Write a sequence for this structure.
């Protein structure tokens, strides 16, 4: 099925295109190994050095049923301009020079040691992607959950929140259905940057240990910087299944949240028209229940599918990705 508005490249695609020497592309591939979201998320260069200004449609013109000899009432679409900012995520990786040189291939050894720092950055990014709130942490970017955080009818996005029935104060989790695409939701990096990611080899430096008194030694230092953000052009193409009480989950759904039913509801909420690539995201606890439900022969919604050469759990053909950045301690959405 054709996707309206085409699509943007993934982070790895952007890195390969903009980084001829391949260093950033290699790092992006490593990061994707730790973060399945990066295999789905589409990225665009922002139209601002610090983010992206977009025009979001908030209302549609109604049109008029016209009678003969009567005119057409004027109507217009309603729009709003929104600026989404990018945040700067940085890390310095350090390794003892003698240890790195012992390996015989210093560059490869340093990159293997840097994986821990890249994984840490990945976890920070994923956490911000779901829970980032610039009113609380202005140095980050606005994530998904704060945009779907109220069931008040006057809040437009409330129409795309389904409640799983949990009502505890801080013992819930969510499943997020995201549509990645140019007209729905996508990641951004600053105008003029290489996918927002910078890798700078600072070479040999004098490092300091954590002993008392402090000791010095020679080592290698690498600086990583990732400038990234999130744009949501149309909230109607995402759904949050909130208030899933983790402790009450059961394999057959006889009690607690009925995951299959909730996920069917989420898919049916989306407007008609394929506006991008749909993906479900949940943490390991929830996906564990879904995978074990695959053993139930009466459940025809859950399957294993080949996506980009990998076995992926899918629900009604929509991939179900795991992200442990999604908490089991979410507050109740009310």
């Amino acid at each position: 099925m054709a996707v309206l508005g085409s699509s943007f490249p993934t982070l790895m695609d952007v890195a390969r295109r903009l980084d001829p020497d391949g260093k950033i592309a290699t790092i992006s591939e490593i990061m994707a190994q730790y973060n399945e979201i990066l295999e789905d998320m589409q990225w665009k260069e922002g139209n601002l050095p610090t983010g992206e200004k977009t025009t979001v449609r908030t209302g549609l013109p109604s049109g008029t049923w016209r009678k003969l000899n009567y005119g057409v009432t004027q109507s217009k679409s309603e729009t709003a301009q929104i600026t989404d900012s990018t945040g700067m995520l940085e890390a310095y990786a350090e390794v003892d020079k003698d240890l790195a040189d012992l390996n015989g291939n210093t560059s490869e050894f340093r990159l293997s040691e840097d994986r821990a720092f890249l994984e840490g950055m990945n976890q920070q990014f994923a956490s911000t992607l779901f829970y980032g709130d610039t009113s609380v942490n202005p140095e980050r970017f606005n994530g998904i959950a704060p945009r779907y955080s109220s069931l008040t009818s006057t809040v437009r996005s409330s129409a795309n929140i389904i409640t799983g029935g949990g009502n505890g104060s801080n013992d819930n989790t969510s499943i997020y259905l995201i549509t990645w695409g140019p007209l729905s939701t996508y990641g951004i990096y600053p105008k003029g940057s290489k996918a927002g990611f910078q890798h700078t080899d600072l070479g040999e430096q004098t490092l300091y240990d954590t002993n008392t008194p402090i000791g010095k030694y020679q080592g290698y230092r690498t600086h990583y910087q990732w400038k990234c953000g999130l744009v949501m052009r149309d909230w109607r193409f995402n759904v949050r299944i909130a208030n899933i009480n983790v402790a009450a989950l059961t394999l057959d759904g006889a009690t607690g949240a009925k995951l299959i039913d909730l996920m069917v509801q989420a898919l049916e909420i989306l407007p008609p028209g394929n506006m991008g690539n749909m993906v479900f995201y949940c943490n390991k606890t929830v996906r564990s229940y879904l995978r074990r439900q695959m053993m139930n022969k009466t459940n025809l919604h859950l399957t294993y599918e080949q996506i980009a050469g990998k076995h992926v759990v899918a629900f009604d053909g929509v991939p179900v990705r795991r992200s442990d950045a999604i908490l089991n301690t979410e507050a109740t959405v009310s």
Notes: The CA atoms of residues 160 and 239 lie 5 Å apart.
